[in-house]
Amino acid sequence: MARKKGLKQYSKQELLRELAARVADEKFHDGMTMTEMEVAAEELKGEAGEPSVALMLARMKPEKPTAKACPKCGKRIAVKARDRERTVRSLSGMVTFRRNYHYCERCQYGFYPVDRLLSLPEEGELTSELEKRVLDFAVNDVYGECASRWSLHYQQPVSENLFRRVAARVGEQCEVADQGRLQEELKPRCQAAEVLVVEVDGSMLPIRGQEPWKEAKVGVTPAPGSVTATRSVAEPFRGATSSRTQAPGAPLVPT
To answer: Cα–Cα 20 to 30 A to 252, which of 115, 123, 154, 192?
Structure first.
């Protein structure tokens, strides 16, 4: 008589097929729409994600209660408090873990090495991945609309207040950050154009006041992709103008 296979002997594909079959047995009904099928599949992904993240966290090596380097000055700092609990909201749901707290008297700065190892924000209830998505909504729409739009994309609801708090917290971090490094990180990572086409000209215009005439300078560059070797510029130009006389080489004011 053949021995019965244990769960660990099944491949991941076999287990996924079995899980999908169980969901189909549980959820399917006559007249089921495609939307209902898709929502059922999304619910399955959410249900599988939370225990997956929790299990991977549980497999991390236990944190040793040894001194760790302060992120600001580099001095090794002893543990001030052990096994402090933190619960964060991830893309897959809520997860809870424990970690040690260190406090540097010289820098007046407290830190959790495990939080830094996991690349978690120092404050707040969201993981970095979830915070990025919340912030993307918050900076591109009003908070009330963000909450309703979010529910269209994700199963876990997010409140209007949470969008507001995340935007405020990240905004404060940007204000105190090294502006040079911040601007460097914000630079677009696209490749620079090989050729830049610029056309400039000026014209004298009548104005009100004691000076009867002033020069208005105009500089234009074609929109990306609007100039090729086989056709002329057809798309609108981006330009810059000035309503006052400028010295040669002075920057134009964008329109």
So the answer is: 192
Q: Judge contact between 181 and 156, C-beta under 8 A.
A: no
Cα distance between residue 167 and residue 18, in whole Å = 42
Which amino acid appears at position 199 of this protein?
Answer: E
Question: Do the beta carbons of residue 77 and residue 103 sit within 8 Å?
Answer: yes
CA distance 224 to 219: 16
* β partners of residue 76: 69
One DSSP character per residue, 141-179 reads S-HHHHHHHHHHH-SS---HHHHHHHHHHHHHHHHHS-H
Q: Are 193 and 172 in contact (CB under 8 A)?
A: no
Contact 169, 161 (CB under 8 A): no
Query: Quick one: tokens of 128?
Result: 């970095």
And the tokens for 155? 């199963």
3-state class of 4 per DSSP? Answer: coil
Where is 38: in which H helix or E strand? helix 34-58
Cβ-based neighbour number of residue 146 at 10 Å:
23
The 10s digit of each residue's pLDDT in 215-235 is 888 877 777 666 555 444 444
